[in-house]
DNA sequence: CATGAATGAGTGTTCATTCAT
DNA sequence: AATGAATGAACACTCATTCAT
């Protein structure tokens, strides 16, 4: 993931908008950050398409004009939020260490799952908006593809280490995607439906399912 | 699924719109069906929010006025498509029979997965639109919750039969959600990213992962 | 001047806007024409940039939406008016017959000048707007270049017939431009400054100046 | 040119803006001059309405705040440029000496035309902007009327000297306007269209046309 | 003298929905 | 049963101008 969060990348070179936080004084940085937070908040309760620049501005206690001083677009704000979120999630993905076949492997997995689910919950509004606007903004689609690639690559590594593809066990590439699918969607279901009051138990079970399915050794007959 | 598919409001009792296909002559049915197909097509390439009634009408080769003769709303059209899709998917979910711990269980699973993935691919545009518009339309959210409930219940049944929750194996409710999450998202990834040229092999691996993780018996030490 | 009055000529092929009057029923044609008239009126008193779509719509007694049913743009309306005007002026330019060296030539010239000045006065608001928006709209600039070319070509023909370039008389191409310049700007000054209450006398003098300068034979020593 | 160059309003008496360059220290003068140049440059490539204060400020390498330290308005900057330009052009107009009926008259005319065309070319951006904004700013309109008046008066003098109005030759007032029209518009066409690669020859022809039409004596039958 | 930040009224444009025929 | 035309509330975005430092 490159640090460039520029717009579509064409003739925006001379755009007056400071796309990133660079080149801003203290006050400017504070305002920009207030707008980002406000954006996240409004996104959370209305979704991307229904989020009005007006709402964001009201929450951030600024003016319409100020918004466009810091972001080229409504989409540009989303992109900034998405970049933040994408970085956090890929960092998390690569933070998963080797997962052993035994109980200590399951414990490590469980801990990591807890972190992931928590991060997902925190970022869900942005993720939802991200998905919502993908068809309309190729750049968002690109970020998504990139994040998907990085995360699944990290998982593939872990799976290969654990012997995926050997002894009749499932192939690593497919497994990585399946694992990512499961974790991501489970996190989504958990946050959006009102599931599982008992988080700890749910985590236990999920960790076990995943460990058994993806990381454990051969099965007994 | 309740028979009321009308808007959330109340005064629609005497609306001229036939919510379902009932009470229409041959020509009317054909027009309505043309609109549904056009809707699905437009949804497929633009997503719900970017889909214009104008586009749908143009593809269906009708007029704006005609559209509102058959549907109360743009949302109403989506609801009709969603209902169709929801029925197909829940039917599919309940069609999964008992899954044994042995190879024949894996084979049955594999076959069912093939059907599911295929159905998902066919319905993806509608599913995407469905998700996109959920926050704005409580009725769609309700349909989603309902479908989610039915499908996960069906899976719970199969998992319980297979001994979930016993001998240190993961609990059925969580497992059902995890399984659904994995299947649904895997299908999504497969269709939206350009994954896996070799479908058959991918299916093999996926079936194996799931069988091992959710349905197989105790593990070897 | 081709009859195509389409937009910039790119991907507008499937635009929903009926760019020309074609394919409209009676009512549609009437509305479109009302908008054109209103546009001309508003342009007349405010100029292009200060003309608000809102004003045009109010004068035409229609709604905002209707405006965009018939024109893609504010610019598009201007283009339609300009096309009309451009046609009228070039037609007028080519309507000038051979101009003899004697008094009957001057009389013919005088008559034509009267027509031109009148047409110019009638079209001045559009011409002003045309000039105003040229830098911003290449298509308008193109129309202008085209009209300029046609008119000066017509004048060149007349001048060549009259012996321009012979006997130490000025060359036809430059003369044509000079003549056009003079007529056009004279018309402009006359309409925008409050000149010459005595129109007939002014016409006499102008015709004589032009006849002497451009069409008359050799000078006395 | 009256000394009031202030806005149309009245309460500007204590405005901090030095309307002219007076009362500024060296650095101030330099900044003001940088802004004027930048203004001319931006006007040249975008026209008045599309010229953004932002652009001017960027080209001048200053800030928004500074701009309003030296000019009350965007219009105020234009007025300053226009005043400069107007002075140059009227000076030029009055610099035309008597034009004799013979070849030496034509030569004098030719030289003056060269100067005028060159000055016009140099000032064209400002002239264009001037014309563009006239309807919106009465003061600019006033300056224009004034300049028009002075220039046409000067020409009238020359024409009267040369016997305009006598012997069936056109009347001086109309001729003066016609002459001004022709020169001004010719200059415009030459600069804005890409005309006449051969400037010298064009000048010859133009001078001859004008001399014949306006200054030469009686014509041969 | 200079500046970065803030402002908000104003404008073009879209699009779901309704209506007259 | 069908349709072309009309509608207008809603929204994103711009930019000249002011202000605090």
Structural class of chain A: mainly alpha
Q: Assembly type of the shown chains?
A: homotetramer
Specify the CATH class of the largest domain in chain A: Mainly Alpha
Tell me the greatest interface: A-B, 48 and 47 residues
For the termini of chain A, the CA-CA separation is 45 Å
Average pLDDT taken over every residue of chain A: 86
How many helical elements of chain A? 8
Helix and strand pattern of chain A? HHHHHHHH
DSSP E strands of chain A, number: 0
Tell me the domain tally of chain A: 2
Features:
homotetramer; 221 residues; mainly alpha; Arc Repressor Mutant, subunit A; 8 helices; DNA-binding
What does this structure look like?
The structure is a homotetramer of 221-residue chains. The first copy, chain A, is an all-alpha fold. Chain A folds into two domains: 16-72, Orthogonal Bundle (Arc Repressor Mutant, subunit A), CATH 1.10.10; 81-215, Tetracycline Repressor, domain 2 (Orthogonal Bundle), CATH 1.10.357. Helices cover 68% and strands 0% of the residues of chain A. The first copy, chain A, has eight helices and no strands. The longest helix of chain A is centred in the middle third of the chain and has 31 residues, at 103-133. Chains in contact: A-B, C-D. At the C-D interface, α1, α7 and α8 of C face α7 and α8 of D. The structure holds a DNA duplex (21 and 21 nucleotides).
What is the structure about, briefly put?
In chain A, 68% of the residues lie in helices and 0% in strands. The first copy, chain A, has helices at 26-46, 53-60, 64-70, 74-94, 103-133, 138-161, 172-192, 199-215.
